[in-house]
Amino acid sequence: MRWIRIGAAAVNQTPLDWSGNRVRLIRIVEEARLAGVQFLCLPELALSGYGCEDAFHGLAHSARAMESLLEFAPATKGMVVAVGVPVRMHHGLYNCVCLIAGGKILGISAKQNLAGDGIHYEPRWFRPWPAGECTKVEIGGKEVPFGDLVFDVGGIRIGAEICEDAWVPTRPGLRMSRAGCDVIINPSASHFAFGKTKQRERIVTEASRALGTAYVYSNLLGNEAGRVIYDGELLIASNGEIVARGNRFSFSDHQSTSAIIDVDMIRMRRTRQTSFYTSDAGIHIVEADWNWKITHDPPTPPATQPHGWAGGEHVKEEEFCRAVALGLFDYLRKSGSRGFVVSLSGGADSTAVATLVALAYQFARMELSAEEVQARLPRLKLDRRSFCGGLLETAYQASPNSSETTRKAAEDVAKALGAGHHEWNIGKLVEEYTSQVEMAIGEELTWDKHDIAMQNIQARVRAPGIWMLANVRGSLLLATSNRSEAAVGYATMDGDTAGGLSPIAGIDKYFLRKWLRWMGTEGPEGIGAVDAVMSVLEIPPTAELRPAHHKQTDEADLMPYDLLDAIERLAIRDHMSPREVFENLVHEWANKVGGEANLGDYIRKFYRLWVRNQWKRERYAPSFHLDDANLDPKTWCRFPILSGGYEEDFLQLPGAPNS
Question: Taking 60 as the threshold, does the pLDDT of residue 311 lie above it?
């Protein structure tokens, strides 16, 4: 039997942090060597960082990548290591993985299928490498093989699919399998989205079965560049089963896992498959001498789930808080800010944002020592006695239309989270602005005639004070608008959208309230419930911008949130016309909203508000990508700021055409 230990590592990198990225990778290699790993797979573009954006175009960037690769290679002494790196060749830039054995660069495999949909823009920077072609590229004064390669290293054949390569029907692994690959690796920069881990598991397990290889998947970790969160998934499969997996959403700089595989058993199973045939056609084999140290330990048995929350009823709730908490923690430490500031209104949105900040500290402390957390946040003096660790400062900014109920709810939440909390009143500022405008136009402003203006001035007057608090503290102001509001523009620009980061702009209001209820009754594994958030859920969602006798609520201003989210998914995610949306919803919703005419009116209202408020979405602070129905125009959902709208389509709906 030929048993070898193969490993995969996830790493939290930063674009353009050449020395930092390299040091972290060297540390991983050293730890893997001590653990007996003989072949290690590192993530996609791990040396440069995946999110370099247009910096990839620079000639100096490519030169630095090669310098970093040459400095990294000697650290692989005694091991075979695959690392992702951008390589410029023939006036084109390629997304590549470099295979290194004992410090010697054996060759460069280039990505053949570029991710160009959704949040990915690889075709803007890279060129796809044609299947079956190979050439040579000069690195450090030596020519090495480059292109569509399989490596025969000491008699063990290794191939590489780079992220998207494995997600397409014509995956390179098919030809690599026919070339007799014993191991296929997949270094990835695969963004987090709800439930995506199940897709990856299917791809990895089925690849190991159908291709007749061991399959190694390694992903990036953390908030690398601002908007995208990587969960650090690590999977090793053999014979259709996961034999090793890593923990996701780690707050460490890196995570790793390894498994012992039986190369001879892999080959025997291929022999037993009557449909399997071998062919080196279209594949260039790079041969290299290498002395594998055959282990006497038995192969690794199938792996169990690393988290108790990986299955069950509340997977999405667990994924949401762990992903956003990690995103916030990394954003804080990489931006160098001295904590977070939130304008706490006593409502669901600001409560959710504040709670997520506290969870960032709690998750970090569950995994790291107090000293390690402090070392990652050197500009902060952490308070170990506080639930939020001293990361959070909040303020309740009352107006004449604010209620004691929301004031008390905000106070209770801040106290439960251990946040520094302030209260002040914006009434006089609102009066002064109102008086100035009344004098300028020679007219008294009234709720009957100037409703929107009277509401918006309150939201906007709140912005300067909370910005000033953030500036004084050197902290990052977090905006509190959610995705449902973004869809219909139910937010005041330069008011409740104020902030440098908008952590919940990628999640809908319906789920957000469901998550808060779970947070108040159960909470994430290892932390538990935060009882104080339940008081917020007793208050109907309201902007509290009109006088109390108006009994203002969000859903009265808009429509039921679950209907709004259903329309949004069909209209925006699925690109349906108003009539198609109506046909999909009429059976479930017509009776709930009082008939087909009312449903038609709600659909018209959604589309009109969507079209009218694209300019607002263009101005939102950066948000986290949480699912593949994102509304962020900079990373996912493009729509013209000016358009003819859907007025002709509205004529096909029941109800009043001009509603």
Answer: no
Q: Which of the residue ranges 58-67, 227-236, 269-278 would you say has the lowest mean pLDDT?
A: 269-278
Cβ density class 609-639: b for 16+ within 10 Å, e for less = bbbebbebbeebbbbbbbbebbbbbebbbee
First-to-last C-alpha distance (Å) of the chain: 75
Q: Which candidate, 323, 245, 223, places its Cα nearest to that of 13?
A: 223
Examine the pLDDT at 101 and tell me if it is beyond 60: yes
Q: Residue 342, SS3?
A: strand
Q: Classify residue 390 as exposed, middle or buried by CB count within 10 Å of its CB (0-12, 13-18, 19+).
A: buried
Label residues 553-575 b or e (16+ Cβ within 10 Å = b): ebeeebbbbbbbbbbbebbbeee
pLDDT at 548: 72
pLDDT at 274: 61
What CA–CA distance (Å, rounded) separates 44 from 203? 17
The pLDDT tens digits of the residues spanning 138-190 come to: 999 999 999 999 999 999 999 999 999 999 999 999 999 999 999 999 999 99
Q: How is residue 301 written in tokens?
A: 């048995």
What is the CA angle 377-325-194, rounded to 5?
150
Separation CA 53–CA 29 (nearest Å): 27
Q: Which is nearest to 27 in space by CA: 234, 183, 298, 253?
A: 253
β 142-147/104-110 pair status: parallel
Percent of the chain scoring above 90 in pLDDT: 84
Radius of gyration of the chain (CA): 27
Both tokens of 299, joined, read 């192969």
What are the tens digits of pLDDT across the range 228-252? 999 999 999 999 999 999 999 999 9
For 451-491, the DSSP string reads HHHHHHHHHHHHHHHHHHHHHHHTPEEBP---HHHHHHT-S
Distance of CA 469 to the CA centre of its chain: 29
* Whole-number Cα distances in Å, 502 to 144, 479, 494: 46, 5, 13
Assign 281 a pLDDT band (cuts: 50, 70, 90): low
Cα–Cα distance measured from residue 324 to residue 340, given in angstroms and rounded to the nearest whole number: 14
d(CA 55, CA 124): 11
What single string gives the DSSP state of each residue in 417-438? HT-EEEEEE-HHHHHHHHHHHH
**Dmax (CA) of the chain:** 92
- Cut 0.90: pTM above it: yes
CA distance 402 to 101: 66
